[in-house]
Amino acid sequence: MIKEAVILGAGLGSRLKEKTVAMPKGFLELGGKAIVEWSVQKLLACGVERVIIGTGHCHEYYDELAKKYPAVKTVFNAGFASAGSMGTLAVCAPCVTADFFLLESDLIYDAAGLFVLDNESRKNVVLASGATYSGDEVYLEAPEGALRALSKNKNELRSVDGEFTGISRLTPVFLQKLCVYARDNRNTMPKLEYESAIAAVSRKAPHDFPVYVRKIENYAWREIDDAYHLQTAEQDVLPRIIENEECRSVRREVLLNPGPATTSDSVKYAQVCADICPRENEFGDVMAWICDELTLLAADKAAYETVIFGGSGTAADESMISSCVPDDGRLIVINNGSYGERLAKIASVYKLRHTVFESSAYEALDIEKLEYEFKTGRYTHLGIVYHETTTGLLNRIDQIGPLAKKYNIVTIVDAVSAYAGIPMDLEKLGIDFMASTSNKNIQGVAGIGFVICKKNELEKTGAIPMRNYYLNLYDQYAYFLKNRQTRFTPPVQTLYALRQAILETRQETVEGRYARYSECWHILVSAIKKYNLKMLVKEKDQSRLITSIMDPETPHYSFDALHDYACKSGFTIYPGKLGNINTFRIANIGAIQPSEMRRFAELLGGYLESIGWR
Ligand code: PLP
Ligand code: MG
Ligand code: MG
């Protein structure tokens, strides 16, 4: 898996004349977007964690781009005006830590090229195409698929076996060789281009540093060096790229149920990867990275640790409850919805000493009354749901967590439907154990439950005799710490999807995600009001992630009919979950856009009209 990329963007682009006097070539717009931004988005969608851009001419454009994409880091080549592209690559080299994609900034290309290079088992590979007749071709001589020479002049080559696209994958070791070659030849070749350096290094040591050519005959790509390239890119190449990519897009289903949530195509595609034994170091690194990043979204890595299980959210809940309360402890479980009830059920299945604190499923919990219980000194542990998905009721963890800490109570929080959708800082909230899952606000696919644990509290649970096995939190933690493996078979592809989902969360940020979710919720709430529908929970007590709506009181209403009506337009909605009150629920989590919620709101209006409600 390739995790890094370098884009060479320092050049003057002088052949584009006035278009690039005050702007780098990468910022030429095609289809309403800067070409380098297309490129960055494609790299991120294929799982790249860091994009290093070597800048020079008008570097401030790239520095602005880096503000929009936290994964982008710019490196300035002060000598850009007098150096060739190899000079810029050399300036980027110290930032490269792993196998990387190397691209030029003036390219548009089909993302399939990245997929192809990513799936290469050979280490240093340049991507080639058949003839483009673009007018500035770099031809490759690669008789057996190994690069022997390249030139803009066909006559200098013994055979023409393809055109260089400006997209490669290289190792850091090979990059070092390139830098040494450039340094050794600085005086004779001050304007060395990186592709010439690649050819020279591999020619000098074809056995130690072979460079392979991977050719896609009809590959859609264009380098934009002059006005003619720009014109053909716009008229011919970009439409082909867009068509190819559309052919690979997955049918859109907008899930307005509270998880599994809608995922991006890039998350879905992240599951399509080479088979790997999960006991390989490479996979251990992926899991360790995932655990660290899950922690970082809500806590400090020095104090908290994430433990993962193959399983759903309930597995994570069960793991916490059954692993953390010692026999002589006593748990108080808040029941103000089905998931609180489930925590209590788990406690009773494991025969833990516990008390259930009952509270309304749709009204804010009475914190004074809860403190009264805390004051009795009977409880060592609290079990509570952060966001009761049953109704959309948000428990005030910001008050309850610190209150529990005041009474020295260990807090066990089901944040299955809150984590990564609501900004949180576990330390500030006084949370010791927090469960969530891969398929809700983190926007991955279903199959992983995880618990983010305060390390010192987790360590203490090691002394509790095991009353569970697969779900034992401490055992899973200790084994992973020692072996960088899970005890049992992990859901490999699901974890790759989770990795991609985390990258996309880092790009959006949890704050940004909460803002998007809130915007969708506001759209829904205004529609509810406009249609004279009622909500079960007061707005101020809602999570803004799911809304319980009272069924319209007319005999013509049927949830199933509304469900089927919405389904026809690609929306999936969810029934209510309260026994005695008739509601349906609309969630607004996942990779959905405000424009889609607007469409749904109109659709709901259409249905209500059809039953004579409006
Ligand atoms: N806890 C809460 C708050 C939930 O919303 C859910 C699922 O919706 C769960 C637990 C259970 O998760 P799963 O269905 O993945 O076991
Ligand atoms: Mg060129
Ligand atoms: Mg160029």
Give keywords.
single chain, 614 residues, alpha/beta, Spore Coat Polysaccharide Biosynthesis Protein SpsA, Chain A, Aspartate Aminotransferase, domain 2, Aspartate Aminotransferase, domain 1, 9-stranded mixed β-sheet, 7-stranded mixed β-sheet, 20 helices, 27 strands, 19% strand, binds pyridoxal-5'-phosphate, binds magnesium ion
Q: Mind telling me the CATH superfamily name of the largest domain? A: Type I PLP-dependent aspartate aminotransferase-like (Major domain)
Beta-strand content bin = 15-25%
> Counting H and I runs of at least 4 residues, what is the number of helices?
20
Ligands in the structure?
Answer: pyridoxal-5'-phosphate, magnesium ion
Q: Per CATH, which architecture of the largest domain?
A: 3-Layer(aba) Sandwich
Distance between the termini: 54 Å
Helix content: 25-40%
Low-confidence stretches: none
Report the count of strand segments: 27
Radius of gyration: 28 Å
Supply the number of structural domains: 3
Biggest sheet details: 9 strands, mixed
Instruction: Give the overall silhouette.
Output: globular
The pLDDT mean sits at 97
CATH topology name of the largest domain, in short, is Aspartate Aminotransferase, domain 2
SS content category:
alpha/beta
CATH hierarchy, class of the largest domain: Alpha Beta
